[in-house]
Amino acid sequence: MTSLVKDTGNPAAIEIGGLHKSFGANEVLRGIDFRVEAGEVVCVIGPSGSGKSTLLRCVNLLEEPSAGTVRVAGADVTGPEVDIDAVRRRIGMVFQSFNLFPHLTALGNVMIAQRKVLKRGRAEAERIARVNLERVGLADKFGAYPAQLSGGQQQRVAIARALAMGPEVMLFDEPTSALDPELVGDVLGVMRGLAEAGMTMLVVTHEMSFAREVADRVVFMDGGVVVEEGPPAQVIGAPAHERTRTFLSRVL
Ligand code: ADP
Ligand code: MG
User: Is the ipTM of this complex over 0.90?
Assistant: First the structure.
């Protein structure tokens, strides 16, 4: 069988094996296995409560897996001697809520973690912040405070903030779900640009047209398991499972 995955000969950017996560008696992830190759864009779709956010949070160790392994660029991040901060530096994350500091400008928001976490000097952090704000189409908003920006612009600042840390992988958890419909396109456009530039991306989204057009693979989750995965034309266009069809009939 020919693999649909790009074979670079390198370890997978993300490799998840037998991942379980319980909160008390509630088993939210019930054995998840999949890989994201370097340069791949994988979209995770599925109903609310199916464990999509928990899956992303286990990848960057915001949650501790109950069992199983998560490897990032070949390194086991669930091992006992893992440097959690070092792992998080390799993984950028963008959430539904942008969580910008209201008292800092766009430039300040993109500089602060570079300064505090990476210990970059002011001039270098500012240069890198400018490059990344330009990259997300906000060259004219360096001095704007969050309250002066639309939701879509704030989310693009949050993307620039993550990119400024130089991540190898970007995780997106429903990045457009909190936005007014007319602002969604700009954010998806930025994400499309990142994908075209070769960024490795794991994206939880309800934007089926984005998943169809941009994803190399789509993973459909329900009830804490991967029900099916494959190229978008297969999973979205011709789903094999009844659960996938039912979900798609609600969102499409
Ligand atoms: P999704 O992102 O697919 O909507 P989540 O991963 O957010 O799903 O949640 C899956 C289930 O895990 C839900 O039942 C939710 O209540 C539960 N859950 C998520 N985070 C926690 C937590 N920190 N403590 C307890 N339960 C949680
Ligand atoms: Mg979620």
Answer: yes
